[in-house]
Amino acid sequence: MEGISKHYGGVRALDGAGLRCARGRIHAVLGENGAGKSTLIKVLSGVVRPDAGRIELDGAPVELRRPADAQRLGIVSVFQELSLMPDLTVADNIGIVDPPRRWGMIDARAQRRRAEAALARLGVTDIHPLAPVRDLPLSRRQLVEIAKALARDPKLLILDEATSALAAADVASVFGVLRALRDQGLAIVFISHRMHEIDEIADDCSVFRNGRHVASFAAGERTPNQIIEMMIGRDYDSVFPPRPPGPASPAGPDGPPPALQVTRLSWAGRLRDISFEVRPGEVVGLGGLDGQGQRELLLALFGAVTGVTGEIAVGGKRVVLSSPRATRLPGGGIALVPEDRKTEGLMLAMSVRDNLSFAALDQLSRLGVIDRGAEQSAVAGVAELLRIRSDGLDGPVAALSGGNQQKVVIGKWLLTRPQIILLADPTRGIDVGTKQELYQLLRRLAAERAALVLHSTDYAELIGCCDRVLILYDGAIVRELEGSAITEHNIVAAAHNLPAGEPA
Amino acid sequence: MTGRRSDLGYWLAAQRGPLAAAALFAAMFALFVAKHPAGLSGSVVNTAANKGVLLALVAMAQTLPVLTSGLDLSVGSVFVMTNCLASTTLAGTPVQIGLGIAAVLGAGIACGAINGLVVVVGRLQPIIATLATGAIYQGIALWLRPAPGGDVHEGFADFMTSSLHDAVPVSLLILIATVVVIWLPYRRTALGRAAYAIGSSEQAAYMSGVPVARAKFATYVLAGLFAAVAGLLLTCVTESGEANALLAGSYTLSSIAAVVLGGTALYGGAGGVIGTIFGAFVLRTIGDLLFVFDMDALSQPLFLGVVLLVSVSLGSLRLLRVKRRLDLYR
Amino acid sequence: MTGAATLRALGARLRGADRAVLAAIGCNVLLLIAGALYDANFLSLDYLLLQLQVASFLGVIATGVLLVVLLGHIDLSIPWVVTLGGMMSTATAGHTGIVGSLAIPVAIACGAGFGIANGIGVAYLRVPSMIFTLATNTIAQGLMVVHTGGFAPQDHATPAMHFLAVERTIPGIPNAVWVWAALGGATVAMLRRTGFGRRIYAIGNGERAVYLSRGHVGRVVIACFAISGACSAFAGVLLAGYSTKAYQAMGDPYLLSAIAAVVLGGANILGGRGSYLGTVAGVILVTLLQSILSIAQISDAGRQVIYGTVIIAMLLAYGRRPKGVS
Questions:
Q1: Residue of B219, B272, B221, B230 whose CA lies nearest to B252
Q2: Do A245 and A230 contact (CB within 8 A), yes or no?
Q3: ipTM above 0.90?
Q4: Which member of A179, A401, B30, B253 lies 3.0 to 4.6 Å from A33 by CB, making a disulfide possible if both were Cys?
C-alpha cells in the first residue's frame, strides 16, 4: 500500500500512509487509536475507500470497492467488531460466503464438516457446529471468527485485535496455527495493543502515528519503550503512576465505614458467596480468567440483574439495588463504566455535550427544565479535566476515537460525583497514550476518596493500578492479593485455581 | 458454554416458534370441528381452507422482508390489485387463462421489484416506502376496477375452490405447492440464507461479503409473487375483482400479526414461512370459533383484539426467567 | 460562550437533520405554486386558512406520533383511538349536568388510558410496539363496535367542541389552529428544554445506554404513548366537533397520513432524530398534497397513484439512509 489518504470530515485519518508486507512473514502494526491503523486495515479490507493512494497485491494493482472484492482476492480480515450473525449457527457463519453446494442449494452436511475441520485446526473441541452463535461467550465467538477467516484459504490474513477476549491458552493455540500458516507462505498483518503478544508472534513491525507511517523494522530491533515512544511521540517512562504506600484509609472500628461492603453475594449460580469490602480511596481489582463472574459481579453491584441474594452496604448503610436507578444515593452513589462503550455507555448519534450531561440531568435541572448555563459549565469543566479531544462539544460522539469516547463515558459519571466507581475492562482497545491518562485519572479519583472496583483482563493493569486484587474463579473469590503480593505469577496461579507457590 | 446437546436438540430449539403455532392451531381447529354441527366434513374443511390459505399466502409474503428486518406494508394492496387484474384476465380458453395467470403473477413480481428497487437502491426506510407504493398499487387497482365486477371462467374458479375427492381442498394443495416449490428451495440457497444473515446483523453480513442488496431485493420480489398467488385465489373465491382499500389494509395488518404469531421476530434473523402459515390459520380460526360458539357478531372484533393481545404478550412470560435485566434492552 | 463558538454551534444545528426540514418547507412552497397554477384562488387567505384548519387535526395527531417515533417505536392504535375520542366525547355530551360538560376531558382520559396500556405493553412486557398497538387498535375497535351496536352514533358534539374545531376568534384564524399552535409550542419546549425531552431522544438513540445511565426508560415510554393516545383522542374530539357527530372508522385515514407527515418532516422512523418544526412542515405538506389532488379533479385511482409517487419522490430527495450499512 502506498500513499493512502483518507478524510473523514475535517479529520485526516490517513495521510500518505503506506505498508509493505511480505509473504511468509507476520507483520505487526502498532500505533495509538487515531493513528490510522484501523482505517488502513479497513481500506485494505475493502470496507472503506481511500481518497488517494494505491494498493498492489503480488505486484499487481487492485481496486477494492467493497469487502467482497477484497475477499475474492484472498484478503481476509478478522476485526475487533465481529462479523458473526448471532442468530445463525456456527457452521452457517463459517460458511456464509461460498458455501459448499449441491444442485444450487447449500449442502448442509458438507458445510458442517468444513466448520468442524476449521475449528479443529485451531484446537477447539467444545463448540458444536449447530449451536447458534448467540449462545456462545465472547471468547468462543472470537475463535469462530478466526476459524471463519482461516476457512477462506486466505493469501493475506489481517487480524485487528482479534485475540482481545481470548484466554492465554486459546491465544497460544491460535498463535501456533498462525506460525504454521506463515511457514506455508501466508502473509499476516497483526494489530494488537498487547506488547507481549507482539513480542511473541511478530517477525516485522511498523509504527503509525497521526495517520502517517513512522518506521518499519524487524522484531527485536527496538525495545518496547522505544516503540511506545515512537507511537506516542513523546518521552515515555512508565505507564502507571506510583501507588501511594500504605492502606488508603485506616480500617477497623475507628476508621470511616467502608465505601462498599459486599456480604455473601450470590446470583443465579454465576456468583457464589462473594464477600469483600472497598475502603474510600482504594482501588480494588477483579482478576481471573475470562467469564468467571467478574462482569456479572459488576452488573450486580449496579442493579442491572435480579435475583441477587446477600447484602450490599454503601457507606455502612444497607442498600437494595433493584435497578440502576437505585444506585443514585445521597453520598454520591455508584457509577458503572460498562464493558461496551459504544452500545452501553454512549448514545452514539448524540453530541458529546448531551452524552456528558446525561447521567446528571436531574441535578442540572430545575423542575424538569434543564439549566443550560449550569449544563454548559459542568460539561466544559469535565471535558477540560479529562482533556477530551474532540471537534467541539456539539459534534456527535461517534466521531471521537475510542480513547476519547471512553473519557466521555467516565466524564458522564464524574458529573454525578460518585462515591463508588465500577469499571468493566475500561482500557480494552484503547491506545497507550490514553491508557496512561486513564491510569492517572484513576489514581487521582482514588486520592479524592472515591472507591474504585476495576475489572481488567490485562494483569499488567492489575499490578500497576490496584491496591488489592481479588481473583475470581467459577463465581467465587479464590484469592485476595495485597500490595507487593500482586505479581503476575500470583495472579495467574490464582486464576487457574492453583495454590500459591511464591512467597509474597 | 455450549451445552451437550444432540443435533436434534438444536433443530428443535430453532423450531420452537413454528411448533408452538402449529400446536395452537391444531388445538383450536379441533375445538372448532368438535363444536361445529357438521363436524369434520369436507365442506367445513374446504371453507376453512379457502379462507385460511388467502391470509396464509399474504402472510408468507410479509414474512420475507421481515426476515431481513424490513417490512412490506403494500402486501395487502398487491393482493387486491392482482385480484382486480385477475378478474379481467381469467377468462376465455385454457391457453388464455394460462396467460392470464402468468400475467397476474408477473404483475406481482413487478410490484415486488418496484418495492425492492425503492428500498434497496433508493435506500428508503421500508415502512414508509412500502406505505407509499401500497397507495400506488391501490390506485392501479382502482383504475383496473372502478367498480366491483369481472368476468371469471366459472369452471376454473370452481375447481380452484373445490376439494379433491371431497376431502383435500385445492387451495391447500396450492399453498403446499408454493411452499415446496418456492420457499423450501429458496431457504436452502445462499441467497435465502443471506436474508436471515441480514436480519441477524446487516453490518456483520456486509463485512462478511454477503450480497446484501441482491438478497434484500429478492425478498421483496418473492413477497410480490406470494401476494399475487393470493390475489389469484381471491379472484377464484369471489369470482370478481374489487378495489377494496379496507380489505387491503386489513390483510396487511393481519399479515403482520400472523408473522408474529408464527414465531418470526419482527427484528428479523429468525423464523420462517411455515410458522407464519400456522399463525395465519390461528387468526382465521379465531373468527370461526366465535361463530361456532354462537358469540355475538358484534363482540367479534373485541374478542379478536383481546386474543391477539394475550397471545403476543404470552411471549413476555419468558421475561420472568431473564435474570440479567440489562439484556432486556436492545 | 464566545460569539464565534455560538455561530459554530448554530451552524452545526442548521446542518444535519434540519436539512430535511428545509427540504420539507421547500416542497410546501412548490405545492403552493403548483396549486396556484391550477386555480388562482388557491393562494387566497380564506383557502389557506381553511387548509391550516384541516391540517390542525392531523397536526394534533402527528404530535403524538412524533414522540413515539422519536423513541424508536410506532403507534398503530391511532385510527380507533381517534374514533374512540370522538365517540366517547359525544356520548358523554349526551348526559345532562356536570357530567355532560366533561365530554372533552373524558375523551382525552380514555385516549391516555389506551396510551398507558400501550406503554406498559411495550416497555414492560417488551412486545414490539408495532404488534402491541395493532392489538390495542383492534380492542378499541371492538369496544366501539359494541358501544354503538355497529351503527353510526346519534350523539351530538358539545358547543365547546364545535367552538374549538370550527369557530374563529381573533383575528379570523380558526381556533383549531390556535389549539395546534399551543400544543406544538408546549411540545417544542418540552423536547428542547426539559430532561424528559432529552431522554426521549436518548432512548431513541440507545435504550441500553440510557438504562445503564440511570435513565428511567419505562416511565418515559409510557408517558410518550399516553401523550400519543391523548392527542389522538383529542383529535377525535375536534373532528367530532367539526362534523358535529362522530362516525365509524373516522380515524382510519389519519394513520398513514400522520406517519407520512412525521417522516417527510425529517424524523428517522428508527428513532432518535427528528424535530417538531419538521413535523409541522410535514403535516402541512401532506394536507396541501391531498387538497391539490382533490381540487384537480383527478379520479380516485389517479389520486392514489400520484399521492404515493410524490411521497416516494420527496423521500428520495431527502429521506434516504446513508450509504453503506446503517
A1: B230
A2: no
A3: no
A4: A401
